[in-house]
Protein: DUF2695 domain-containing protein
Organism: Paeniglutamicibacter kerguelensis
Amino acid sequence: MEQYPDKELEDALKNVRMLLPWRHECLACYVFRMLAHGCDGLKWSKTYRDMRAPRATALERKLPELGGYCDCEVMANVFHPNDAMWELDDQGEVDETRIPQCHGVRLGTIKPCALWFMRSGIQWGGGVYRGARKAS
Ligand SMILES: [Zn+2]
Ligand SMILES: [Zn+2]
């Protein structure tokens, strides 16, 4: 039986952890972050669903309906940065190199956090910013 040195195992786990959604990270922030590792169909969206929102079984149907046939299209067509929450560059465009920290969502939802608008049907919806409510 093959053995792995502890150090090797630890490093491998660290890498795996980087590829998983953080506990309250939203779908949009997660997929956006993961696209740095490439786009392969709806792999990242599905990974998120399986780990964080297993009941969102309509995801495979819903995302393509909104123009997201793969993860990069999801970020191009389904989610849209909420300008007000991002740093803007000299042109007043969202600076995608300075990614704000995810505002967090409850477990089980595929809705984005306040950093994003989500398209609903042909309209952009879900973009009403209600302010991050903190449980205290
Ligand atoms: Zn793609
Ligand atoms: Zn987020």
